[in-house]
Write a sequence for this structure.
């Protein structure tokens, strides 16, 4: 479950001055392992300056393409993103996890349905996979994309999107939004309330949208969600994924965290371990400190790599940007955010 596989880089393409796309060569015996749903991500692992680094990157290829491809945008002080953009070469071997993630699109060609996607910056990566999947596998469905960037030069996958728009001109519409340059047929500014209302209530008012997919900074996602729900859009049709962790919030009841210890039992890869841990520590931190191969990546509460189920006892999470109320009620936790609040706790990474 938490294992990695060594894959060599098949191709690297420069998408913008600050972003590259990387495709991997998947050997035949791993083809089934790397089957994915549109919207999922993979975790890349390598050693940089003597330290193990793990990072999640969404797949931008379509499930039917046979490609395992991600985009990496270089960010300020980004250890892996800077390394990838400046050092990776064709033939370099990285450790890669099997695809995972809950921000997914499942095509169904027996039903005609329309989707609208809102993306900003590198948030286009999983959205592109979803768009390709919908266009390729749902031959009657329409797709609307609202995509925000600084300028056209900063727009990842610009040419690929324009090619898709040309190929599927009757079914795929793009509304570009640029914050630093006024371009023809684009909106100047950011994706704001007025942008959402213009696209959904004016430009495409005759299209009934059945599902919404949002990916980008937290502020953009909240803005789009709020406008959609204010217009009576069912919240269950709004799917989103953050690409940047927000600052952790304080646990509402700090009194639940004591200086005491919890006797924790961790089940991972069919192995069971029991040990004492301080309640000030997260479940994931304690598991890693005890040399358990618990799955993790971002450690910021925005991916689902460290997902586990509480079998006995209780925890409280510092932040949760992924799990629904019903999933939390079922016992699912993000172990990178979860602190024990009971004397004993059993956590199962395999039962998710």
């Amino acid at each position: 479950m938490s294992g990695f596989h060594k894959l060599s880089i098949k191709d690297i393409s420069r998408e913008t001055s600050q972003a590259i796309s990387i495709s991997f060569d998947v050997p035949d015996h791993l083809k089934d392992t790397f089957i994915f749903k549109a919207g999922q991500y993979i975790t890349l692992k390598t050693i940089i300056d003597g330290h193990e680094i793990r990072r999640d990157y969404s797949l931008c290829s379509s499930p039917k393409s046979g490609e395992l491809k991600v985009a990496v945008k270089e960010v300020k002080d980004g250890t892996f993103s800077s390394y990838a953009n400046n050092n990776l070469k064709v033939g370099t071997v990285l450790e890669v996890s099997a695809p995972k993630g809950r921000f997914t699109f499942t095509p169904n060609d027996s039903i005609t349905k329309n989707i609208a996607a809102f993306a900003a910056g590198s948030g286009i990566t999983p959205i592109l996979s979803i768009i390709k999947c919908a266009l390729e596998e749902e031959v009657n469905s329409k797709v609307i994309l609202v995509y925000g960037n600084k300028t056209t030069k900063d727009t990842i996958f610009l040419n690929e999107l324009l090619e898709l728009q040309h190929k599927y001109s009757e079914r795929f519409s793009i509304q570009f939004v640029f914050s630093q340059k006024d371009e023809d047929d684009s909106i100047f500014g950011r994706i704001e309330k007025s942008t959402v209302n213009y696209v959904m209530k004016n430009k495409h008012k005759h299209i009934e949208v059945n599902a919404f997919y949002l990916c980008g900074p937290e502020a953009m996602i909240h803005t789009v969600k709020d406008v959609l729900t204010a217009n009576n859009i069912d919240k269950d049709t709004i799917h989103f994924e953050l690409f940047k962790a927000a600052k952790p919030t304080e646990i509402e009841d700090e009194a639940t965290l004591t200086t005491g210890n919890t006797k924790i039992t961790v089940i991972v890869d069919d192995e069971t371990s029991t040990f004492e841990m301080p309640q000030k520590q997260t479940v994931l931190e304690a598991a890693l400190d005890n040399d358990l191969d618990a799955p993790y990546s971002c450690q910021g509460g925005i991916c689902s790599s460290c997902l586990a189920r509480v079998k006995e006892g209780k925890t409280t999470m510092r932040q949760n940007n992924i799990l629904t109320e019903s999933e939390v009620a079922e016992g699912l936790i993000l172990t990178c955010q979860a602190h024990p609040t009971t004397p004993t706790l059993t956590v199962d990474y395999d039962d998710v």
User: Anything to note?
Assistant: DSSP finds seven helices and 19 strands in the chain.
